[in-house]
Structures are given as C-alpha cells and as structure tokens.
Design brief:
The chain has 144 residues and is mainly alpha-helical. The chain has 8 helices and 4 strands; from the N terminus they run ααβααβαβααβα. The chain is elongated.
C-alpha cells in the first residue's frame, strides 16, 4: 500500500539525491519549491509556500533528508484526501455542495448540521465565493 511505501522509504533516497544538485545532503527551500511542484503538480503559490514551510521543520532554509521524507508523507496524505473529496463529490462535478456535505454527514451518522451551519462551513473556506468547495478549497480546509 501507499503507507507501506512511505514506511520503507521506497525510492525516496534516489529522489532526494536527484534534487540535491550540489550533493551537500540538503535541498534549499527555493529548490524545494521545484521539488513540491514536481511531486504534487501545479499548486497555488500559497499552498507551495505552506508545504515548504511545513517541510523545513528546523527553519534553517534547507530541507534535509528527514524533512524530505515528511514531504513524501504529505503527498500520500494528499492522495488520500483526493479519495475523500471524490467520496463527498457524489455527483462527480468536481465540487462539493452543501447538499452533498449534508448527505455525507447523515451517512456517517454524525450530529445533524443545520443548513446554516453547513453554509458557514463552506463560506469559511470558499476562496472563490461560488458557494461550493473545489478540491483546492477542500484541501486548504483540511490542511489548516
């Protein structure tokens, strides 16, 4: 499984070496932006900065191998979040509506939410103001 690949660091050393262009055992945070884009694809500048900041645990401006592993673990989590997003996007239109959120809450047997409470949940993370959650908004909400 994906989790097992992370635990065994499958291919991570080779990937790290590829990004460590000067072979000093570190990747600068600037280079790490390229790493993040390569691994995760096109993301907003804000998301990239958040991920790089998250990876640079000691704040030294360098990403060591251990911190690189954390980036890879984040990729696995992100892929799992995508699966969750698709489960919530019941009609497959690429966005989650209030109705879909309410339906999921009802299915998992959690406490009922009023329509107003669900609208507030959406409004708090709906960056483009369209009344729905697209994948990036959903991801930003989870990563907060």
């Amino acid at each position: 499984t994906e989790e097992l690949l992370v635990q065994n660091e499958y291919g991570f050393k080779e990937s790290f070496k590829r990004f460590d262009t000067n072979k000093d055992g570190q990747i600068s945070t600037k280079e790490c932006e390229k790493v993040v884009t390569t691994i995760f694809g096109e993301l907003s500048k804000k998301t990239i900065e958040r991920m790089v900041s998250y990876a640079d645990l000691n704040g030294d401006g360098q990403i060591c191998y251990g911190e690189f592993i954390d980036i890879m673990k984040q990729k696995i989590r992100r892929e799992n979040y995508l699966k969750e997003f698709h489960l919530m996007d019941t009609n497959g239109d690429g966005k989650i509506s209030a109705k879909e959120i309410k339906s999921v809450i009802k299915k998992v047997g959690k406490v009922e939410k009023t329509d107003a409470e669900i609208q507030k949940i959406i409004k708090d993370v709906d960056d483009n103001g369209d009344g729905y959650l697209d994948y990036n908004e959903f991801l930003n909400a989870i990563m907060k």
